[in-house]
Each structure stands twice: as structure tokens, then as C-alpha cells.
Amino acid sequence: MAHAGHAAAFGGRTPTRALSRSRVTDAAKRVGIVLLTLLVLCGLWELYRWIWVSTGWTWPFPVNDTTLPHIYTIFQALGEPTSTGGPLLISTLFDAATFTAKEALLGFALGASVGFLLAIGLVHSRLAQRALLPYIVASQTIPILAVAPMVVVWLKSGWQSVAVIAAYLTFFPVAINTLRGLESPDPRALELMRSYAASRWKVLWHLRVPTSLPYLFTALKISATASVVGAIIGELPSSIQDGLGGAILNFNQYYSITPANLWATNLVAAALGIAFFLAVVVVEKVVVRRAPEQRA
């Protein structure tokens, strides 16, 4: 009877089915908003181009087919071969994006692990925080373009050095945000754990880590896109031509002739960063949703 009453309250559907349909509706709305935003941005791009070309304005830069090609020209270039009889540009960029993704994924995993472990060490030692935090912050004031060549020389050219460069950009937000999250539990909860003679290990995994998850995943979202940027930058001094960094360097030489190729490469690089970001979002939904069960 109670089940029938609940079903009647949801218009003859069970609560689980109604909740599932609600989630599908929310997901469809989000996809629609994203597509609408993309259409608006494309419209603003073309409007900006049309106004500047029709009026002849040259501020802040002259607008023409080289400096600001049409949106459709960029997508059209993806379906054209990079050279006579060669593969399509989209095929070339897909292979390059796959190669860069492997480097970025390794760098992301390495940097996130180092940052997480570093935060765990710092949260248990105020002395270590005072001693190491200034140097951790100072490490991010050094331009990555200055660090990348040194890493390549130390580790020799190769994808390993690229992964280290990606990890360099990844570890900092994870370390700082995770440290803040590990310090965020309610003091009363910490006192309760200590009153039960809980070890530091149990306090860490049963209280501090679950509380830090929102902070951790916020950092991981930032680091996910930063790892892609680090991998692309790291490919340049490493003389790696198989990734997006090599494609950007190559198409940059012919920008005055075929600017759409470079814009298309930038588009694929942005899509790769977004894919990394969305992957973290999906993992966050799964982990954070199960976190209360783990704490229980």
C-alpha cells in the first residue's frame, strides 16, 4: 500500500524511475546550454569579424582571413588533407592528441600523487609547512618555458621529460588545495576521534580525507587542464613531433598561408583539455557520492 501511495504521488511511476528521468532531463538541459553557448560564441566571433572588416577598423589588430578566419573555414580545414595525397587534418590531429594525452595523463597522475602525498605530510607537521610551503609557492613563480629545457637536458629528450613537465604544473594546486581540505574538519570531530584513541592513520582516512574531497577535486579539475598545457609545452624543447606541440610548431610556420590549420590545432588542444576536465567531473560524482558510505 505504501509503495502504491508513493507511486501514485509520482504520477504512477516509482520514485527511482522518476529520479532517473529527472537526471536525464537535467543532463539534457546541460548539454543544451553548452550547445547554445557555443552557438552564441560562434555568432559573436562572426559578428566581430563582420563589423571590423566592414568598417575597416584596425584596433586592436587588423581583422582579415589570416588573423581571424571564419569559423566554417576552421572546421572545413579539418576535413582537408595536410598535403597532397596525405592524411586528413582531423586524422593527423587525432593521432597527435592521442600521443599528447598519454603524456598528459602520466604527468597528471604523477603530479596529483606527489601533491596529495605532500599535503598529507604537511598537514601532520607545522614545522614542515613553515619550511616547505614558501619553496612550493616559489616553484610556481618560475616560468614553465624556463623549466622545460632544463628538464629535457636532465632527463634527455623523450616523453618521460614531457610527463615530468606536465607533473610540474599539476602538483601545486593539488598540494595546496588538499592541504586546506585536510585542515578543514570540525575541531569537535577531531577531538571526538582523539577521545576514542584513534591513530593518525585512522583520523586521516576516516575524517580528514573524506572532508578534503571537495577541495581535492577542485584542484584536480584545474590540474587536469594544466597537465595538457604542460605536455604541449614540454614537447617543444623535447623535439617531439608526434604530439600537439609538434603540430602547433609545424603549422605556425605556415600560418600566413594556411591559418585555419593552426586554429584547428588549437581547437583540438582545447577539446583535449575539456575532455580531461570532464573525466575528473565524472570521477568526482562517483567518488563524492560514495564518500558518505565510506565514512559510515
Helix content: over 70%
- Alpha plus pi helix count: 11
For the secondary structure, the number of strands is 0
Instruction: Kindly name the structural category.
Output: mainly alpha
Q: Please summarize the sheet with the most strands.
A: none
Mean pLDDT: 88
Distance between the termini: 31 Å
Which spans have pLDDT < 50 for at least 5 consecutive residues?
Answer: 1-10, 292-296
Overall geometry:
globular
Order of helices and strands: HHHHHHHHHHH
What do you see in this structure?
The protein contains 11 helices and no strands. It is an all-alpha fold. Mean pLDDT is 88; it is low at 1-10 and 292-296.
Observed structural traits:
296 residues; mainly alpha; 11 helices; globular; disordered C terminus
Summary?
This protein has eleven helices and no strands.
